Structure formats: structure tokens, C-alpha cells
Amino acid sequence: IDGPPHKFAGGEAVYLLTSVNSGTATADDISLSLALPQGAKYVSGIEGASAQPGSVKWKIASLSPGGERQYEVRLQLNSPGENQVTVVSPEGSIFAGSSSVLVSPR
User: How far apart are CA 50 and CA 16, in angstroms?
Assistant: First the structure.
């Protein structure tokens, strides 16, 4: 997950998420979750995603060995201070990571 190092509160931040299957078999029915910092709002970027306060959830039907899927995710960051965005995969076969951004008041 790659994102901006600094944003202003209320501004939109764009993150590039890359999900990679580093295993030797096709991964099917993959559930992924994006944990959002307090006050963040999901704007767009993941087809079929379900947004709730504090998280965005989506599924990947199938990902072949060595395959990857990229998303350009837009979030509105509203809380000043350090904001961390984390990708979580309960299956463990897909890389999960995080990115921090410093948000300054306007």
C-alpha cells in the first residue's frame, strides 16, 4: 500500500493498493479489508466494496500464483495527526500492509 506522506484535514488522499498471491496455488474467494483511521471516509476505488465506519471490505474471486490486483483507493481524511491505513487479509496468502500519512489542520 502506497499513499501520500502529508495531507490537509478534509482533503482527499489517493492510495495505491496492490494485492499479490505469493503462493504456488490459485487463491479463490479472497476476503480483504481496509482498516481506516478515525474520521476517514471511503470515497471510491474498489468495485463491489462495502464501506462501513472504520473499514472497507471486498472480495477477489480468484488470483493465480504470482498474480496481482491493483486498486487506486480514494479516502477523505478528516482527523489531524498521524493516520494509518491498513490492509488485512485473514487468509494469510495475500500480502497485507499499511501506510501512514500526517494530516494537518487546514
Answer: 18
Which stretch of 9-13, 26-30, 64-68, 94-98 has the lowest confidence by average pLDDT? 94-98
Average pLDDT, the chain: 83
DSSP string computed for the chain: -B--SEEETT-EEEEEEEEEB-SSS-EEEEEEEEEPPTT-EEEE-STT-EEETTEEEEEEEEE-TT-EEEEEEEEE--SSEEEEEEEE-TTSSB---EEEEEEE--
The three grid cell numbers given for residue 23, joined into one nine-digit string: 503462493
Q: Return the percentage of the chain with pLDDT > 70, whole number.
A: 83
Task: Please check whether residue 8 is in contact with residue 103, taking contact to mean a CB–CB distance below 8 angstroms.
Answer: yes
